[in-house]
Amino acid sequence: MEMNESMVGDAVTRLRRAHGQLAGVIAMIEAGEDCAKVLTQLAAVSKALDRAGFKIVASGLRCCQAAQERGEEPPMSVAELEKLFLSLA
C-alpha cells in the first residue's frame, strides 16, 4: 500500500518531533547528563515512534475499509495489516 503525507500527516509530524527528541537525547549523553534524565527522554522518543507507527497502521485500516465500501479490492489483506500491527508490539 502506498502512503502519502495527506494519509499519514499526523504520523509525519510525530516522527519529526521524535527526530528532534532523539537529537536531544544524543546531546544529553554526549554532555554526560544524568542517566535518569536521559532514560526519561529516551522513553518519550520511543513512545512517539510507537504512536507514529500505530497512526500509520490505523490509516491503512481506514484506507482498506474505504476500498471495501467502494466495492474495490483493498490494497492489503486483514492478515497483512495484522502482521504490521503486531510488528509494532
TrEMBL record:
<comment type="similarity">
    <text>Belongs to the CsoR family.</text>
</comment>
<keyword id="KW-0186">Copper</keyword>
<dbReference type="Pfam" id="PF02583">
    <property type="entry name" value="Trns_repr_metal"/>
</dbReference>
<protein>
    <submittedName>
        <fullName>Metal-sensitive transcriptional regulator</fullName>
    </submittedName>
</protein>
<dbReference type="InterPro" id="IPR003735">
    <property type="entry name" value="Metal_Tscrpt_repr"/>
</dbReference>
<dbReference type="InterPro" id="IPR038390">
    <property type="entry name" value="Metal_Tscrpt_repr_sf"/>
</dbReference>
